[in-house]
Amino acid sequence: MPHPNIYRIESGTEFYTPERCHITEIFNRHPNPEVSIAQARVKAGVTTANHLLRGTAEWYYILSGHGEMFLSGVSAGYVSPGTVVHIPADTPQYIRNSGQEDLVFLCICVPRFQADVYEEMQ
User: Per the confidence metrics, is the pTM higher than 0.70?
Assistant: First the structure.
């Protein structure tokens, strides 16, 4: 039976992106190309930039707050804690924080997120 790889994750530094959200990288390592995990935080009233990830599927897991998810320019529905959103690769997407508090969620990318796959849409 294979042994699991266990990683101790140090608290990352949150940074603001041109996408209009705050990101904390949790797990995104070159030797592990299969997946990456980040935490996103969108302030109340903010809508992120319309964008897609070329060749990379993404899952959002909502931790706190409330919002509305848009895929290909159409509302895919409202999100709240415990909601999982699947975003197929190459799908235009953005999320609007429709609540009064920060919208916080995990972003899980397969394969792992790399900056060169991000494409902002007009």
Answer: yes
Tokens of residue 102, six digits: 């920060």
Read off the pLDDT of residues 63-104 as tens digits, 9 standing for 90 and up. Answer: 999 999 999 999 999 999 999 999 999 999 999 999 999 999
Question: What is the amino acid identity at position 93?
Answer: Q
* Distance in angstroms (rounded) separating the CA atoms of residues 49 and 115: 15
What residue spans define the domains of the chain? 27-117
- Judge whether 36 and 109 are in contact, CB under 8 Å: yes
Topology at the third CATH level for domain 27-117? Jelly Rolls (2.60.120)
Residue whose entry in the numeric block shows the structure tokens 């609007």:
96
Give the span between the Cα atoms of 20 and 41, in whole angstroms. Answer: 9
Find the mean pLDDT for residues 97-120.
97
**In this structure, what DSSP letter does residue 19 have?**
T
83 within 8 A of 57, measured Cβ to Cβ: no
Cα 118 from Cα 80, distance rounded (Å): 25
Tokens linked to 9: 């994750």
What SS3 state is found at 83? Answer: coil
Q: What is the CA radius of gyration of the chain?
A: 14
